[in-house]
Request: fold
Amino acid sequence: MKSPKSVEHNGRRLSEILELHAKFARGEAGGMRADLSGANLAGVDLRGSRLGYANLRGANLEGADLREASLTFADLSEANLTRADLRKCDCTETKFTRANLTEAQLNGVELFRGDLAGANLERASLVATNFRDANIRGANLRGADMTTTILRETNLDGVDLSGLDLSTTLMPRGWKRASPEEVKK
Reply:
């Protein structure tokens, strides 16, 4: 794992960007919202980071460790999170639109009102992940582990859940598996 002190983005050390963002989040003078759009953060240790409202659009976070990070209201649209570890993250109202989360660890993640439209969650581990009120329209969930995943208050129109073991998944009331033809509509 790479340390935030060893990584630079736009001429600044990542550790400095994170410190300024922490001040921004606390409303302190001199704080600045983190703009890490397009940053190469592959393999970086960001465990427990407070990145609420940060711009990580299109960032490369492949294999990054984001366990227990706060990403509330952050923008990770089109970001590469392949094999990233996001276990126990707070991703309330986080944007993952068209993000690549292939084989990512999202166990115990709070995705309340998150936007995962068109996201690739192929073979992702979604054990005990809460998708309440999340937008998952067009998301690729092939081969995902959805053991005890919470979809109770999630709109599943246009979502292909075929081939997934949903035996322990908390589904919306009255939900019944749609045929592949119905999903394509």
Notes: The first strand starts at residue 8 and ends at 9. The chain has a mean pLDDT of 94.
